[in-house]
Amino acid sequence: MRIYFCRQGLTYICNILQNELPDDEILDCPPDNVPEAAQQADVLIPTVSPIGTEAMHSPRLRLVQQYGAGLDSVDIPAATAAGIYVANVPTAGTGNAESVAELALLFMLGLARKYRQAQESIRNKVLGSPMGRALKGKTAAIIGYGGIGRALAERLSGFEMNVLAVSRRGPATDKPDDDIPISRHVAQDGFHDALREADFVITAPPLNDETRSLIGQAEFACMKPEAFVINVARGPVLDYDALLAALKEGRIAGAGLDVFWYEPFDPDDEIFSYNVLATPHVGGATDVSLQGIAKRVAENVNRLRNGEAPLNCANPEVQPTG
Question: Domain spans of the chain?
Fold first, then answer.
């Protein structure tokens, strides 16, 4: 099969997948060339590139398979109409959720211990400054309690933190949270109350119509001025203008961002003039995660080869044309 990554510069990932699928052709293309590549592809891997209607007009394409969880860049109705499967790899069980949770923890520690200011002290030969904050005894509100949220809660328990989980419906009656020591798990109606208590607000939901601009002006108004906001979900989960205003006006103490409103993001954007730690969408980019995802992607390619529907299919009702 011919498999295209819809983004260039991912040599390491391409090689990992090639090792899992030695008899298949692994290629890449720039995002602007996705419709053309789709004409020659059996499988498209979007990463963060948009896969729209134009790409679905392909006589050969049979599967759009994300190398991870997020499918917000894929036009799933267009794929369904064209008889093309769309599938992803859930965060849990591959090392991806754990890797993203570790990055969220890095942001929490970096902000709490004033890492940027500490580097300035190094340059100025100042010892014992700045004074930071310990995580012990603080409250973290995890917004979106799926694979990433649960992996983070598990890790924060070791820091003796008070952990609040917020999900759309709250705890499921058939899946209790007893295995992870959290203080409280609330549904959407407890969202603002959790924000008021939090010293750290970590956003980890999928991006959809319900979560776009989930953290906006009203939500920032709920937060403590000493609170930090960390986004390891998708950029638009935070309202850009509201975040910028909150930082500018000192309504929050800082932010940690691995994801942005468009990517790659402008390094000269005004938001970086405030207390912001940032990484270039690397939450899941670890050895363990990329290997684990590759195995799941390869499994779906082989299922397609054998005439089976892919696992974790977003459109199981599809009627394949190939």
Answer: 2-90+286-305, 96-278
Active-site residue set: 234, 263, 281
Calpha distance 227→212 (Å, rounded): 21
pLDDT digits (tens, 9 = 90+) for 260-311: 999 999 999 999 999 999 999 999 999 999 999 999 999 999 999 999 999 9
184-186 sheet: strands from edge to edge: 184-186, 162-166, 139-143, 200-203, 228-231, 254-257, 276-278
Both tokens of 317, joined, read 């009702």
CATH fold of the domain at 2-90+286-305: Rossmann fold (3.40.50)
Tokens 């103490």 belong to residue: 253
**CATH architecture for segment(s) 96-278:** 3-Layer(aba) Sandwich (3.40)
- Tell me the C-alpha distance between 243 and 6, whole Å: 30
Burial class (CB in 10 A: 0-12, 13-18, 19+), 104: buried
